[in-house]
């Protein structure tokens, strides 16, 4: 029986080691020149160089040289902790987390014009009130994993501290957001070629959001042939690329996700904004620092809120070792992958547009009915936004907004929920509102408004996820409203933490 001839290796495969060494040496030489010429300004570029160099190194060196020592350290640390009774571990975890948050919040100096210590205490109380509200409204309180809640709160607080109180933290995450925005803006080139520069520059939902989704669908098909860690991947990507685009990263797993994972995926989309939208808000005159900080803080916050509201009761496919579901068709090269991604993106874009149209039209119908109904008792312009503005008042008070500004910020939140975040930020930046608010209120209001949690976004989520996982449309419709509320709560908790650190 003759043996099959070995597959002939390509030129790159035969000389891969030498090619990689050349790339690292050239890149290192480039970075040395950059360090000499620009010094401290090269921090972000240096981190990128370190990441690329390590990535190339691990093509040739087993990752166990790092994972084994780290695994040994953490396994011994866990083994030491496990010697103590579970009640002792639980008490120590709670005392450490709460003590750190309370101690740092009350210990930081209060700067003039950024509120008082009483305002900070109000924000601190609000954080714990929001956790209690989530516990009270959980679908299964017995299944809440408090270790996840504590670690999520601690991580969110430390991220806020790192970004708000250090220039290094802000620079790193601002650069990541800027790079993702730049990537998505390349979709304008293809769109302008088809419809012309004037139409492409109109800045509407159809000309701004939909081409970016279509372009990103093609990029994902080219770059990500394999993927894992579904809900964590979506959570991490959402602040940079947006709701519909981030879900494309976990496309192979959408059909097999548990309901808790779907809820978490949707919450992550509602809890933050995308890099492209971030640039739009900055161009409107919104302070970029709270925008970037809120985007990053919402990653752990959205996860912990979702896991409190809808705890996991199944076994996620992407937990631990992951088996990638086989693709229906395997792309032979990047052109094939790009065309398949674009075809998939067209279907996604049409469903998003149709669902948003239906949701916004229904909202206008309900508001028209309420206005007509209110006219009989002399209540002019009775709308869902007006009603919700008063419902938000206690939440905004607990966030730590200056007391005289609570109603104004509450109405901005209502506008964001029932119209969208663009209109809300537009109102915030008008002289009539901006000049009336204190510096603290304006800063905290940005955190409150920095998210896609509105009824139009429900349409986007159901349309995008439903097109990628048709069998889960019923679950998506069932979970969408809860996920939107969790996304809103995430921005409020981020705002409370920002208020604690001011």
From TrEMBL:
Belongs to the concentrative nucleoside transporter (CNT) (TC 2.A.41) family. The chain crosses the membrane at residues 17-37, 88-108, 120-137, 144-163, 175-195, 202-224, 236-254, 266-286, 346-370, 382-402, 444-467, 479-501. Keywords: Cell membrane, Membrane, Transmembrane, Transmembrane helix. It is found in: Cell membrane. It comes from the Eukaryota. It comes from Basidiobolus meristosporus CBS 931.73. PANTHER family: SODIUM/NUCLEOSIDE COTRANSPORTER, SOLUTE CARRIER FAMILY 28 MEMBER 3. Residues 125-197 form the Concentrative nucleoside transporter N-terminal domain. Pfam families: Nucleos_tra2_C (PF07662), Nucleos_tra2_N (PF01773). This is Uncharacterized protein. The lineage of its organism: Eukaryota, Fungi, Fungi incertae sedis, Zoopagomycota, Entomophthoromycotina. Its main location: membrane. The keyword Cell membrane applies. GO terms for molecular function: nucleoside transmembrane transporter activity; symporter activity. GO terms for cellular component: plasma membrane. Residues 291-499 form the Concentrative nucleoside transporter C-terminal domain. It is a multi-pass membrane protein.
């Amino acid at each position: 029986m003759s043996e099959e001839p070995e597959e002939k290796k390509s030129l790159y495969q035969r000389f891969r080691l030498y090619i990689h060494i050349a790339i690292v040496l050239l890149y290192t030489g480039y970075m040395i020149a950059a360090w000499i010429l620009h010094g401290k300004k090269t921090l972000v570029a240096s981190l990128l160089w370190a990441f690329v160099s390590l990535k190339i190194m691990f093509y040739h060196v087993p990752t166990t040289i790092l994972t084994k020592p780290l695994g040994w350290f953490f396994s011994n640390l866990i083994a030491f902790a496990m010697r103590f009774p579970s009640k002792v571990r639980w008490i120590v975890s709670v005392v450490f987390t709460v003590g750190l948050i309370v101690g740092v919040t009350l210990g930081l100096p209060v700067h003039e014009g950024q509120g008082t210590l009483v305002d900070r205490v109000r924000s601190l109380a609000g954080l714990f009130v929001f956790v209690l509200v989530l516990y009270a409204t959980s679908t299964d309180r017995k299944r809440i994993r408090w270790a996840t809640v504590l670690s999520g709160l601690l991580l969110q607080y430390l991220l806020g501290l790192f970004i708000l109180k250090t220039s290094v933290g802000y620079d790193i995450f601002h650069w990541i957001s800027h790079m993702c925005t730049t990537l998505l803006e390349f979709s304008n080139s293809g769109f302008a070629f088809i419809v012309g520069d004037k139409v492409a520059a109109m800045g509407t939902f159809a000309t701004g959001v939909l081409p970016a989704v279509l372009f990103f669908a093609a990029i994902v098909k080219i770059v990500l042939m394999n993927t894992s860690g579904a809900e964590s991947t979506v959570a991490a990507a959402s602040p940079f690329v947006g709701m519909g685009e981030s879900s494309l990263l976990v496309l192979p797993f959408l059909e097999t996700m548990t309901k808790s994972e779907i809820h978490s995926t949707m919450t992550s989309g509602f809890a933050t904004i995308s890099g492209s939208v971030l640039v739009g808000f900055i161009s409107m005159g919104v302070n970029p620092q709270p925008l970037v900080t809120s985007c990053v803080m919402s990653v752990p916050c959205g996860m912990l809120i979702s896991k409190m509201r809808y705890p996991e009761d199944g076994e996620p496919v992407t937990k631990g070792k992951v088996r990638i579901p086989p693709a229906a068709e395997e792309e032979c090269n990047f052109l094939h992958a790009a065309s398949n991604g674009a075809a998939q993106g067209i279907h996604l874009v049409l469903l998003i547009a149709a669902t948003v149209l239906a949701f916004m039209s229904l909202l206008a119908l309900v508001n028209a009915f309420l206005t007509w109904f209110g006219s009989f008792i002399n209540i002019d312009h009775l709308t869902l936004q007006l009603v919700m503005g008063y419902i938000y008042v206690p939440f905004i008070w607990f966030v730590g907004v200056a007391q005289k500004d609570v109603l104004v910020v509450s109405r901005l939140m209502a506008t964001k929920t029932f119209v969208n975040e663009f209109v809300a930020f537009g109102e915030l930046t008008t002289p009539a509102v901006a000049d009336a608010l204190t510096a603290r209120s304006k800063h905290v209001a940005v955190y409150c408004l920095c998210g896609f949690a509105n009824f139009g976004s429900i349409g986007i989520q159901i349309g995008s996820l439903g097109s990628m996982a048709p069998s889960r449309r019923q679950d998506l419709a069932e979970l969408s409203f809860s996920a939107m509320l969790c996304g809103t709560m995430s921005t409020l908790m981020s705002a409370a933490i920002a208020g604690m650190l001011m």
